[in-house]
Amino acid sequence: MGWVTEWAPTKVELDACIDCGLCLPVCPTFQLTGDEAASPRGRLTAMRAVDEGIMVVDERFGEIMDFCLQCRACEVVCPSMVPFGRAMEGAKAEVVAQLPDARRAFKRSVFGRALRVRGLVTMASWMAAGAQRTGIAPRLPGLLGRIAGLRPIPIPVPSTRGRTWDPDGIPKGTIALFSGCVMDPWFSEVHVAVIQLLRTAGFRVVAPEKQTCCGALAAHEGAAYDAADMVERNVQAFEGFDTVVVDAAGCSAHLKAHAGGDGASLAARVVDATELVASLIAEGSLPTIDVDRGPVAIQDPCHLRHAQRIVDEPRAILRAAGYQPVEIDTHGMCCGAAGAYQLSHPETSDELGRRKADQVRTTGAKIVASANPGCEMQLRTHLDATVRVAHPVELYWEAVSEARVIAGN
Amino acid sequence: MARAVDELTALLGDDRVRDHPLDQHLFAKDAGLRRGGAPIVVFPESSDEVAAVVKIAGAHGMPIVARGAGTGLAGGAVPQEGSLLVVLTRMNRIFEIDEVGRTAWVGPGVVNLDLSEATADRGLHFAPDPSSQSACTIGGNVATNAGGPHCLAEGSTVAHILGVELVTADGSTVILGGEAPDTPGYDLRGVIVGSEGTLGIVTKVLVRLTENHLDAATLLMAFDTIEDAARTVSEVIAAGVVPAALEMMDKPMCVAVENFVQAGYPTDAAAVLLADVLGHPAGTAASIELLSDIAVRNGATSVRVATDESERALLWKGRKSAFGAIAQAAPDYYLNDTVVPRTRIAEVISKTYEIAERYDITLMNVFHAGDGNLHPLVSFDAAEPGMTERVVAAAREMVTVAVAAGGTLSGEHGIGFEKRDLMSSVFSPEDLDAQARLREAFDQDGVLNPGKVLPEGSRCFDWGPA
Question: Nearest Cβ partner of A18 from B90, B134, B331?
Answer without folding.
Answer: B331
